[in-house]
Amino acid sequence: MKASYIFIFALGMAFCGCKKILNPADENNRGLSDIYNDAAFAEGLLLNGYVRLPLGSYSLNDVATDDAVSNNPNNNFRLMATGNWSSINNPMDQWTGSFAAIQYLNLILAEADKVNWALTGEYTKEMFNDRVKGEAYGLRALFMYYLLQAHGGWGTDNKLLGVPILTEPLDSKSEFRVPRNTFEECVQQIYKDLEMAESFLPLDFVNIGSANEIPSKYTGKTTVSDYNRVFGAYNAQRMTTRIVRGIRAKISLLAASPAYAQGTTITWVKAADDAAAVLDLIGGLSGIAYNGVYWYASRNSGEINGLSAGNNPREVLWRGNVGDGNNLERDNYPPTLYGNGRVNPTQNLVDAFPMINGYPVTDPSSGYDAGNPYTNRDPRLALYIVVNGSKMGPGGATIYTRIGTSDDGLNAISTSTRTGYYMRKLLREDVNLNPASTNTQRHYVPYIRYTELFLAYAEAANEAWGPDGKGAHSYSAREVIAAIRNRAGIAQPDTYLASITSKDDMRTLIHNERRIELCFEGFRFWDLRRWQKNLTEPAKGVSINNNVYTISNIENRQYADYMYYGPLPYNDVLKLNLLQNKGW
């Protein structure tokens, strides 16, 4: 009996001793308070904003416009343009990703002052805190811009609405059913955030060489080495005052545009001033990059391959990381170059390129020959679009899009062009996809190009002061367009440009230059909507047979008038009791 009790007691003690082994370990879930003494963990909240930027690759949403079609029947933008756009199926949605980013940014803004950002260095903790808050304010403004662009619109209450303004982090006790603010209130919140960002951030992240270069805010409080540790070149491509000003120019242009002007106080003068505030930093017109029409191309490989340490090309204000690859070429090379020919430029876009003398192809003075439609055209046509007879790829192969020649011909196989054209812009033609000798090349995606801002200034300046007005600046809309066309290869003085005297005619030209210069970079869809231009222009193509060029409609565009403004997600409208935009 004693032996049995001893055995049972020993067994019980053994199990008690094993309790910690048999029970599951505590979960390694860190709490918010852990950020206070772990700067890297705290910075992760900020970085969640960066990783959610919809800027990592080209959306190629031109397929949803009159500029392009896709040979992929399951392409979301193709489906959207042909009648399948809804509040449940929205390829342009920015709602979930942007609000998730804003939640993380609100968290870091609420907690940043409590974080021990640095253990060493003079005033470094305070400088790190400034930098992080400046980046967070700038990013929050940018995500609000994306939300307004995608979801702002006239609500069922006949007010121009934006989205709910959230400036505090939400938790389980928060009230989630927050109504939409007006579009104007959202715009003003963006301006406030941008002003706050500028108060914390330097113009650029660069290393300084002497104490005299330390900003007055930190003079006498820190050293050159500690300042560079926080605000030096190591941080290039993160949010800066220069980028903040670029974002301000973008939101001002959006708010002043016809689709939103009736619901905001933003004027064309402000839009022009905000664009000029960025352009003047590079010397105005003298800052136009000579290679701005081929910043992406193989002929610019030296600059692209040389990008390092966060440096930007002259054409680019802000960019993503550089990386080696060939996916863009694999998707869009013609079939004979082992590509899938996905994005097919339309005849509509081809017709937008003027002749070398600057006249539109529809003008009797242009010299356009319908029997030789690609001769004596604006050089940008050959740079951006593969036409019948173009040479392309690492070996300079001739691409024939006419009927009955090769797999590159119109509708020859499933990966052939549907329009008679292939996309050339954005592609590195020193990429070889031949399975026997496949290679990759360096690519990068610009977030903001200076050409975009020059065109924004030209548009706003023309609306504010006419073709030759300058406001408080040293250059006019006409001078900007002349410089861009001259860079493209249209000799100046430009007789056609000189013939334009009215604001209306200059507007037409500026819109067309924007269409050409920014094609395939994700601008056309948003531009058509903010201009309230025709969304239903059919996508056209060309059939070439025995040197006869036949133009026909390839794909109809099925948009209703209410689609100038995008929908809020259906489920969020129901869950959060939000007013939907009209029509959705």
Please provide a written account of the structure.
Among the domains are: 34-54 and 94-239, Serine Threonine Protein Phosphatase 5, Tetratricopeptide repeat, CATH 1.25.40; 57-91 and 323-439 and 534-563 and 573-584, no CATH class. It is 39% helix and 8% strand. With 584 residues, it is mainly α. Helix 5 (95-111) packs antiparallel against helix 6, helix 6 (124-151) packs antiparallel against helix 7 and helix 6 (124-151) runs parallel beside helix 9. The model is unreliable at 1-22 (pLDDT under 50). Strands 1-6 form a two-stranded antiparallel sheet. Strands 2-3 form a two-stranded antiparallel sheet. It comes from Pseudobacter ginsenosidimutans. Residues 329-584 form the RagB/SusD domain.
Summarize the structure.
With 584 residues, this protein is mainly alpha-helical. It has helices at 2-17, 19-22, 39-51, 76-84, 95-111, 124-151, 183-200, 224-231, 241-256, 268-279, 301-305, 327-332, 347-352, 379-384, 450-465, 477-488, 495-499, 503-517, 524-531, 570-576, and strands at 68-70, 153-154, 160-161, 316-319, 323-325, 343-345, 385-386, 390-392, 397-399, 422-423, 441-443, 446-449, 539-545, 548-555.
